[in-house]
User: Which sequence fits this backbone?
């Protein structure tokens, strides 16, 4: 080897060694979660001095199973509905498919860490021009067929962390999809429980109206009898008929709302309304205490917060991808195999060929000018990250609001129900007295009507408050991110849980 060739080889080797030495350098900014300034306790659930000493920084634990939290209500019908919903709800099926998509993209992104290997076989028919061979124009060349069987390999050296940043962003995207899947699952579980208790609340209202209609019918018989005896005017009879008709109309209104609620529940179960029905059963309040825990644990458990945080991490990694575009990229390429003019000679040892890229099997691409495309992409990546940070902060604020709302709802509803129970008892007693006095002829029928209306309103309000209390308990569990320690375990990963039934292709 001549001195000049040796010098060129040494220079090329030195450059290659230098490039390989900086391989893996990352341009991705260090990822740090923003400081949120969280309170040490919820406003509606202050901690005792002993509990206040247990404050800790939030640590990622969103992937932990939430448990079958609905079983705390000890309702077999609700347990069965939750099982049906998780097996057939189409929103969960779509979320599971999106998670599988994200995991597929993550797998594709990770392939950048490995070389690609391809092979090919086939003939090529070609005719070379005389000029390319240095012949005069009056000469001609014959067409020929070349047979090739070869393999090629290529590999991008991750000089400035572009491949690693792409894989990190893809992993964060997959983690975000997993959190969103859990968020959809939690929303489904809570929606089923809420719809169930709303349905039971309407059953209780229907029961109130059934008893009210029966009472109105008895009252009408009494009024009719007194009218026939000439003790009262026709006005009292007309008012009694009006009250009965109104009660029946209101009863049908409740039946209409119940039908719509039952249809909504059917869709949550992945069924058509014609395929689902529930026997009427009045609501039974269940005294369940839901521990609010520490505010820091809310960030650990809420799947929507985890999804927002993972989106923020993915956006941070994409800043590194955009930065890496300013720096050279290094691709190692090579090919080898056999080439001959006939198929019979293709695999002879003398037919072997190989090809390496320039610079000892490397291809170094150095960006020079792109009209501002890279700077635009970098600005876009940074703005996306700022957007995700803002979305994360907002999601945390909304989560705290939802927890505080439901804590205050439960605190106030408990006292409101006690007062409403007293109102029901007092109005019922007033109605009994007015009915007795009317029978004795000491009060007008209008007093009876007013007292009966008051009883009906009080009973309906009482039932609605009980329903609101049960829904608030479900909403608090939803706001806290699902179940808590000690809840029965339940599988929630689509990789290990049978997917809901969807149309096959």
Assistant:
């Amino acid at each position: 080897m001549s001195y000049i060739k040796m010098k060129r080889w040494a220079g090329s080797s030195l450059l290659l060694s230098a490039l390989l030495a900086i391989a893996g350098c990352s341009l991705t900014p260090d990822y740090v979660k923003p400081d949120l300034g969280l309170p040490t306790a919820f406003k509606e659930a202050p901690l005792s001095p002993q509990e206040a000493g247990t404050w800790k920084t939030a640590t990622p634990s969103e992937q932990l199973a939430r448990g079958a939290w609905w079983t705390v209500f000890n309702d077999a019908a609700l347990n069965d509905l939750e099982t049906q919903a998780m097996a057939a709800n189409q929103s969960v099926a779509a979320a599971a498919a999106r998670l599988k998509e994200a995991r597929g993209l993550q797998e594709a992104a990770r392939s950048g860490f490995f070389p690609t290997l391809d092979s090919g076989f086939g003939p090529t028919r070609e005719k070379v021009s005389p000029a390319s061979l240095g012949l005069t124009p009056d000469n001609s060349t014959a067409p020929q067929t070349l047979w090739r069987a070869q393999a090629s390999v290529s590999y991008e050296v991750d000089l400035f962390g572009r491949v690693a940043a792409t894989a990190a962003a893809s992993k964060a995207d997959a983690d975000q999809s997993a959190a969103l899947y859990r968020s959809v699952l939690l929303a489904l579980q809570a929606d089923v429980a809420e719809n169930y208790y709303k349905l039971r609340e309407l059953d209780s209202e229907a029961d109130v109206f059934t008893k009210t209609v029966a009472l109105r019918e008895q009252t009408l018989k009494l009024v009719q009898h007194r009218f026939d005896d000439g003790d009262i005017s026709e006005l009292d009879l007309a008012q009694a008929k009006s009250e009965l008709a109104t009660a029946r109309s209101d009863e049908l209104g409740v039946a209409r709302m119940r039908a719509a609620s039952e249809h909504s529940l059917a869709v949550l179960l992945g069924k058509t309304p014609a395929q689902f029905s529930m026997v009427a059963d009045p609501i039974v309040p269940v005294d369940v205490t839901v521990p609010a825990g520490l505010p820091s644990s809310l960030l650990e458990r809420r799947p929507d917060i985890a999804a927002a945080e993972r989106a923020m991490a993915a956006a941070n990694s994409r800043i590194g991808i955009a930065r890496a575009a300013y720096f050279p990229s290094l691709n190692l390429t090579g090919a080898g195999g056999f080439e001959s003019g006939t198929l019979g000679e293709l695999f002879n040892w003398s037919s072997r060929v190989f090809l390496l890229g320039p610079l000892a099997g490397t291809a170094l691409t150095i960006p020079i000018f792109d009209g501002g495309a890279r700077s635009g992409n970098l600005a876009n990546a940074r703005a996306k990250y700022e957007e995700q940070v803002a979305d994360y902060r907002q999601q945390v604020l909304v989560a705290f609001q939802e927890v505080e709302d439901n804590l205050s709802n439960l605190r106030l509803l408990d006292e409101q129900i006690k007062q409403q129970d007293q109102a029901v008892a007092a109005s019922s007693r007033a109605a009994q007295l007015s009915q007795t006095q009317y029978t004795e002829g000491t009060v007008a029928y209008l007093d009876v009507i007013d007292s009966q209306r008051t009883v009906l309103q009080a009973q309906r309000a009482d039932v609605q408050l009980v329903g609101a209390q049960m829904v608030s308990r479900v909403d608090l569990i939803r706001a806290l991110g699902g179940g808590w320690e000690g809840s029965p375990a339940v599988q929630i990963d689509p990789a290990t849980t049978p997917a809901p039934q969807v149309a096959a292709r």
